[in-house]
Amino acid sequence: MNKAKKPDPDSDESAGVRAEVSRVTKTAVTLAKLVSDHLPFVWRLLRRCGVPPAEVDDAAQRVFLIANEKLASIRPGSERSFLIAVAMRVASHARRANQRREAAHQRFSEYQAACPVPDGLAHLAEARDLLDRVLDGMPDDLRSVFVLFELEQLTISEVAELLELPRGTVATRLRRARMAFQVAAKSIEARTEGGGQ
Q1: What pTM did the predictor assign?
Q2: Is residue 7 domain-resident?
Q3: Do 102 and 147 fall within a single domain?
Q4: Whole-angstrom Cα distance, residue 64 to residue 85?
Q5: Do 131 and 189 belong together in one domain?
């Protein structure tokens, strides 16, 4: 039987391995050392690279989390250059994220400004109700021309073509519909104001 030879702790080969482990341990960078030596620098760099003040602490933490993941690949003596490269990428991501948030906030603000307030919605509902009541009181021939021209914003030529009427007839009906609309609207408005008193 061939017995495996146990390594001799005093042999030259074992001494070389111990020396190598000792050298790596002495020169390897620790996260605690990176943070204590470079945190103020990284924080300033991030801030000066455009990271908003409220996000600098989080960005600095991301830099050191990435450094922790890559700790074994950081060469001794090049820690600062590694942290600069990581900080520049983190700052770039933070700026882009901030720009996206600002753009979204701007779109939301524009949307809010465009949305009617509850009082405005009530006013629109009242106006729509008034319009429906006025249109219900119009004869169909006047109503169709009025709706297509005034509300759907078609031209007189388009209305004439759709209704298969001469342009002159459409223009006459539109004039009569406008007059009927004004009279009916004033009448309904007077009744509404008179009933509310």
Answers
A1: 0.45
A2: no
A3: no
A4: 12
A5: yes
| Tens-place pLDDT, residues 5-49 | 555 555 555 555 454 444 444 446 788 999 999 999 999 999 888
Query: What phi and psi values does residue 74 have, to the nearest 5 degrees?
Result: -80, 120
**With the C-alpha atoms ordered 73, 77, 80, 81, is the resulting torsion angle positive or negative?**
negative
| Integer Cα distance of 16 and 26 in angstroms | 15
Is residue 41 within 8 A of residue 24, CB to CB? The reply is no
Q: How many Cβ atoms are within 10 Å of 42's Cβ, its own excluded?
A: 25
Distance CA 60, CA 39 (A): 7
Residue 13 lies in a domain: no
Number of domains composing the chain: 2
Helix axes 56-69, 79-114, angle to 10 degrees: 140
